[in-house]
Amino acid sequence: MRYRLIALDVDGTLLNDRHELVPETVDTIREVVAQGAEIVLCTGRAPLSTIPLMEQMGLTGYVISHNGAATVDAATREIVHQYQMDKRSLEPYISYCRENGVHFDVNTAFELYVDQLEGLKLEVQSMYEAFLMEPLQLPQWADWSEPLVKFTAFGSMQRLDEVYRDWGRWEQPFNMLRSGDFFIDLMHKHASKGEALHQLAQQRGIAPDEIMAIGNYYNDLSMLTYAGKGIAMANSPEEVKLAADEVTLSNNEQGVRHALIKYCLN
Asked: Where along the sequence do coiled-coil regions lie (predicted)?
């Protein structure tokens, strides 16, 4: 089967644990593209921390960012589609985070805002640096008018387990998911990597069985099950592996390269 569209998660999948693109993997991706496949990066990251990876690989096309909440043309930086969140429905989550000392950020398609820009903890600053993001000061909530696409809580795994349990008891107006051990993301109810991939594929005239998706975490489940070939990384949780069609090597063993050679180049 020749796959026309290949969706790649970024952190824990395309990148190793040092957040690096491995040259051999990049060479394989370029070879797959030269044979006619289209690469789309599908990530919880924002476009501004994803597009540089496309540029490093010498690729054009699209990035599905914020876990499917915003799809952007990597060359023109045009927003192709975005799911706007309801501002009022976010207010209880913001209050919870403020009252319980949970760090959070609020995202438009291209910008990231934090509640207290001054005095950010070192681990928070390091996290934003690793994801190539420069936070801005959140303005007065009553004055906010920009389209919101994602709300993220950040903290230790144990702390976020507690937050996830608490929010899970609420009537949920959003798509709430763990996008990593240290993150909980809220998006529009219909926003997901799988739905965004579905929309992009329809626009490109590509059927699901012509799509391969590779990912490693719970936020990848929707695209792994939508694609004709869903491949989980060896470093994935067991539930993600069980939902996939195949399991490749880990992100530290160039699992993406291994899968592309096996299913796209042989």
From this structure: none
pLDDT in tens, the chain (266 residues): 589 999 999 999 999 999 999 999 999 999 999 999 999 999 999 999 999 999 999 999 999 999 999 999 999 999 999 999 999 999 999 999 999 999 999 999 999 999 988 778 888 888 888 887 899 999 998 888 899 999 999 999 999 999 999 999 999 999 999 888 899 999 999 999 999 999 999 999 999 999 999 999 999 999 999 999 999 999 999 999 999 999 999 999 999 999 999 999 97
Q: What's this model's pTM, rounded to 2 decimal places?
A: 0.92
> Which residues, 6+ apart, have CB-to-CB distance to 160 below 8 Å?
153, 154, 178, 181, 182, 183, 184
Domains of the chain: 5-82+191-265 (3.40.50.1000), 87-188 (3.30.1240.10)
Of 23, 4, 32, 68, residue with least CA distance to 215: 68
The bridge status of strand 62-65 relative to strand 79-82 is unpaired
Taking residue 124's Cβ as centre, other Cβ atoms within 10 Å add up to 17
Structure tokens at 169: 């008891």
